[in-house]
Amino acid sequence: MTLNDELKAFYAARKHEIPAAAHQIMGRAASELAASGQAARALNVGDPAPRFGLPAANGTTVTLDALLADGPVVLTFYRGAWCPFCNLALRALQQQHGEITARGAQLVAVSPQIPDASLSLAEKHALAFPVLSDLGCDTAEQYGLSFGLTEDLAAVYDSLGFDLERVNGGHPHTLPIPATYVIDRDAVIRWAFVDPDYKARAEPSDILAALDALS
Hints:
Layout: H1 3-14, H2 20-36, H3 38-41, E1 53-55, E2 61-63, H4 64-68, E3 73-77, H5 84-95, H6 97-102, E4 106-111, H7 115-124, E5 131-133, H8 138-142, E6 146-148, H9 151-159, H10 164-167, E7 174-176, E8 179-183, E9 189-194, H11 204-214
């Protein structure tokens, strides 16, 4: 089963747990984000990757330049530990982490969560790669991924107990479009997956194929 097959099966099995009114608001917000065309305007293949320095869950600061000094980078943006689709995607990446590093690449994940929330996520899923905190989605904005939640969608997330005010360090209405980039050692994006549908994610097999294409 591919990752996206697993995500679809998860959605089908769990969608009845969300109240109908909340489900309608979430669906409308997703459609509006897709219709905005923002995903098509995000950074893509051939664009230079913006540099960043972000705090990791262990308290260190990780920079893109330092990562690229050792080889290509797989950079994935996710919404947060509260998002079950993100957790499934990160777990799938962890399962392929050995294959990624065997190709000389490093994997790093970025979300708007505070470091403590990222640490809890990393420990829960035994992630062997850095999870970085992009408070306020400043780095996500440089990649063209940051967007603001509508008031009604933010209220739905509050009602579901996600507490974005706390886990996002006082930036509860800003999230990134989930995306994954393969960046070569010259800091150029060589492969990209950007989809405004939070239920769709980059397939690990496609990431590995993109890394193989670099060599």
